[in-house]
Specification:
Blueprint lengths: L1 H16 L1 H24 L8 H12 L3 H19 L1 H20 L7 H11 L4 H9 L4 H20 L1 H5 L6 H13 L2 H21 L6 H24 L5 H22 L8 E6 L4 E6 L26
Antiparallel strand pairs: 1-2
Helix pairs in contact: 2-3, 2-4, 2-6, 3-4, 4-5, 5-8, 5-10, 6-8, 7-11, 7-12, 7-13, 8-11, 11-12, 12-13
Length: 315
């Protein structure tokens, strides 16, 4: 435990010292992975499906507000969809407009989740996200989280059905719009992910705010089990959903990752719990105080020892 606390303090010290370098670098990496994932899935516009363009856009996102990263991702998606089918782009633009309205109205602080959720699916760690969102964010983050899931599954739907959509050259626009809407309205796997991930996020958020000992650990484990149970139920009811092996393996990875992040942000020492009682004219208060685990990282000091003795010369 001492080693973990020392590592935590070193991470905090490193972040404080190099904040101006770490934040742009992380933003650039996130934007780079996002754009590469989009190009890999639906890279139909040659002008955007370029490594140099990806590098330039990632560099722009590194030194601009988070909303620019989201807008760049949405615009690149619309550009690729337009190259495939104008109707697909119109449906996606309408969905994105609703998402941005929800962002402006309810959950502006967690906007980056709209990018992080599809990225987590692309790199194969989606089950980490509901646990981390429940631990670190408020309840309104569920809206942005769900929007990110919709973006991922719509891109995945277009990627899988691209040949069918390209073959609809003689059909009318309404038929193409119907096919595009099917990727959202009749996507059972997407609705299962929305239900299970949102439920797991809410469970983690509610439980980690309780005053019981080890509430964070209980919340993470319970949220992970909620996600697993709901996905199993979805597999039985809809006969569609994630693979069982992928679900279990992803959950096994997600729990320790969420535990480590929870330790970094809220490591509590329950052995030193105190309960305080006091009153005023109207109320009597019972307060439970749990201190955070902290340790000072050892600072290295260099002590100079002069071993050379002064020599005295006699004539």
């Amino acid at each position: 435990m001492t080693a973990l606390l020392m590592m935590k303090e070193k991470i905090k010290s490193l972040y404080a010292s190099y904040h101006g370098i770490i934040v742009p670098t992380v933003k650039a990496i996130i934007a780079f992975i996002m754009l590469m994932a989009i190009n890999d899935k639906i890279g139909y516009m040659r002008q955007l499906d370029s490594f140099l363009v990806v590098l330039v856009l990632a560099a722009v996102c590194a030194f601009t507000p988070r909303v620019i990263t989201v807008l760049v991702g949405l615009i690149v998606i619309l550009g690729h969809l337009y190259s495939l089918s104008m109707e697909l782009a119109l449906v996606a633009a309408a969905v994105f407009a609703v998402m941005l309205f929800l962002y402006l109205r309810f959950c502006s602080k967690e906007l980056l989740l709209l990018v992080l959720v599809p990225v987590s699916f692309y790199i194969g760690i989606p089950y980490v996200m509901p646990l981390l969102v429940g631990v670190l964010c408020g309840p309104t983050a569920v809206l942005t989280f769900c929007c990110g899931i919709i973006v991922h599954y719509y891109i995945d739907y277009v990627s899988v059905n691209a040949l069918t959509i390209q073959g609809m050259t003689t059909t009318g626009s309404m038929d193409k719009i119907r096919v595009a809407l099917d990727g959202i309205i009749h996507n059972e796997e997407m609705f299962l992910a929305l239900l299970s991930f949102a439920a797991a996020t809410i469970v983690v958020h509610i439980l980690r705010r309780q005053s019981v000992d080890h509430a964070w650990s209980m919340a993470i484990f319970t949220g992970a089990m909620t996600n697993v149970i709901l996905n199993f139920m979805g597999l039985l009811i809809f006969d569609n959903g994630p693979s069982i092996i992928g679900l279990l393996l992803g959950t096994v990875i997600a729990i320790p990752v969420a535990m480590f992040v929870g330790f970094l942000f809220m490591g509590l020492d329950y052995s030193r719990t105190e309960r305080v009682q006091f009153e005023d004219e109207d109320y009597y208060y019972y307060v439970k105080v749990v201190p955070k685990m902290n340790i000072k990282a050892p600072s290295k000091t260099v002590k100079k020892i002069n071993t050379q003795r002064n020599r005295t010369y006699y004539k």
